[in-house]
Amino acid sequence: MSGLKRGRALALLLCLGTAAGGAQAGGSGGRIEIGKPAAGAPTLAEIDALDRAVTEAWEKMPLTQRRALFVSAPASLYGGYAERPTNVFAPGEKLLTYVEPVGYSWKPGADGTYQFGLTLDFAIKSADGKILGGQDAFQSFDFTSRFKNRELFLSVTMSISGAEPGKYILVYTLRDKGSAKTSTFEQPFTIAPKS
């Protein structure tokens, strides 16, 4: 027998010996059977049932946001944000906000999809609460999916030009397109003096 054939035969015998040894000991010999979860692990059916329960709770909850924070750059995926270390901005610098809305609704489409979306209003207030400006339906977000997606984020860019140095409050109101749900959150910020 050549060296290569002997090596293959030895490897085959070692594999068979390991499997046989595991069987003799009453265990699986470290093998995992395809299609069967490891002992104690939840099944896909159990995970799907839990997912349905979370979706049912979601549909009953008010619209809110899990996170709403200033970021250094627009996010490219859910949770993929870099939080800005400060809320102080240079004059003319854009304010970038990352938002994770929660509790929005899904409407079934005729083709087996779900439609969902949000409208975003904004207002700018002085530090003492006086409204300085704003716009309803500043941005609109529309989505279609074959799933009731719950991992949704919004990247919002606000340009504030001509604002004097000082403290302000950016107020965003999310409006669910599939229901009457709304949610408002505030982001205090400061425009630094010109250098």
Core attributes:
195 residues; alpha+beta; three-stranded antiparallel sheet; disordered N terminus; signal
Structure description:
- The chain has 195 residues and is an alpha+beta fold.
- It folds into two domains: 1-29; 63-191, Immunoglobulin-like, CATH 2.60.40.
- Helix content is 20%, strand content 37%.
- Strands 2, 4, 5, 6, 8 and 9 form a six-stranded mixed sheet that branches.
- β5 and β6 (131-145) form a beta hairpin.
- The termini are far apart.
- Mean pLDDT is 86; it is low at 1-28.
Reported CATH architecture of the largest domain = Sandwich
Helix content estimate: 10-25%
Structurally, the number of domains stands at 2
Shape: elongated
User: In percent, how much strand structure appears in the residues?
Assistant: 35-45%
Give the topology string: H per helix, E per strand: HHEEEEEEEEE
Keywords: Signal
Signal peptide: 1-25
Provide a quick synopsis of the model.
This protein has 195 residues and is an alpha+beta fold. It contains 2 helices and 9 strands, in the order ααβββββββββ.
Summarize the SSE layout with pairings:
Blueprint: H1 3-24, H2 44-60, E1 64-70, E2 88-89, E3 95-102, E4 107-108, E5 114-126, E6 131-145, E7 154-158, E8 166-176, E9 182-191
Parallel strand pairs: 2-9
Antiparallel strand pairs: 1-3, 3-7, 4-5, 5-6, 5-8, 8-9
Keywords: Signal
Signal peptide: 1-25
